[in-house]
Amino acid sequence: MLSLVLITVSFRDPTGGAFHGIESAGATILRPFEVASERVARPFQDVYGYFRGLVHAKSENEKLRSEVNHLRQVALQGESARQENDQLRAALSFVDGPRFPRDYTAVNTRIINWSSEFDQRVVISAGSGAGIRQDTPVVTRAGLVGRVTALNGGAAQVTLITDESSAVPALDVNTRAVGLVRHGQGQDSLILDYVTKDLRIQVGDIIVTAGTRSSQYPSLFPRGIAIGTVTNVGQSDTAPYKQVLIKPFVDFSSLDAVTALVTHKKSPKAP
User: Fold this and answer.
1) Domain co-membership, 192 together with 60
2) Alpha-carbon torsion 197, 199, 69, 99, what sign?
3) Does 245 lie in the same domain as 115?
4) CA 100, 104, 110, 113 torsion-angle sign
5) How far apart are CA 266 and CA 247, in angstroms?
6) How far is Cα 33 from Cα 208, in angstroms, rounded to an integer?
7) What is the DSSP string of 222-250?
8) What CA–CA distances, in Å, run from 149 to 64, 116, 146?
9) What is the residue-wise DSSP string for 118-130?
10) Which of 30, 126, 225, 232 could bridge 130 with an S-S bond, Cβ 3.0-4.6 Å?
C-alpha cells in the first residue's frame, strides 16, 4: 500500500516539486554506496565467470575427445575394409575368422578391481553369464584394452595389452607393415616388435590389430581395432628388427567402463 501511495504521489507531483527533490537527494546520497558495491562485487563476478567458463570448456573437451575416438575408429574400420576388399577380390574360397564389429556383440561393463603396478590385470563385472568366454577381446571407444584370461559366472579377469605376457599381432594402417605389439619399457608403453628393416614405418602411423592372417593360426583379436600411434622408429646395424615405440590410444591409468566383444562366429580351426 505504501508503494502504491508513493508511486501515485510521484506521478502527481510536478517535476520541480518537493517530492522529486527528495528523490534526487536520496539518489545522490546513495550513489557512492552503489558504486562501491559494484566494485566489491565485480571481482567475485569475474571469478564466477572464469570457473563457469572452465567447467564448460572441460565438458566440451571431454565431448570432443569422445567424438575424436569414435571418428578414428570409424575411419580405421573404413580403411581396413577397403584394403581388405581389394585383397579379397583376387582370392577365391577365402576363409577368414570373425570380423570386427560385424561378427561381435558388445557387452558393456565396468571394472570392479584394478591391477597393481606390477600385475597388469583388471576384473570386470560380467562373466560367462553374459556370454563372455576365455580370450574374449576387451576394448573401449579409444582402442584395445586386452583379453579375458579367467572368468566365472559373474566376473572375468582381463589381462591388459601392457602386461609382459601379452602379445598382439598388429599392422601399420599406412604401410601394411606387420609386427607384434608387446609391453615396452614404461608401465603403459608399447612396442611393435619383429618389424624387419625392409618394411617402411613412420612416426605418426596408426597401429591396429592384424586379425587372423592364417586359418592354421587364428588370432585372438579381430582385425581393425585401434591400438596406438607410432612415436619413435629406430634401428641399429646389429639388430635384425626395427625399434618401434607406440603410444596406446587407451589411457590405462583411468580405465573404468569397457566393452567385451563376444563373437557369434566360430574362428577357423587348424586342419
Assistant:
1) no
2) negative
3) yes
4) negative
5) 32
6) 67
7) -TT-EEEEEEEEE--SS-SB-EEEEEESS
8) 33, 17, 9
9) S--EEEES--GGG
10) 126
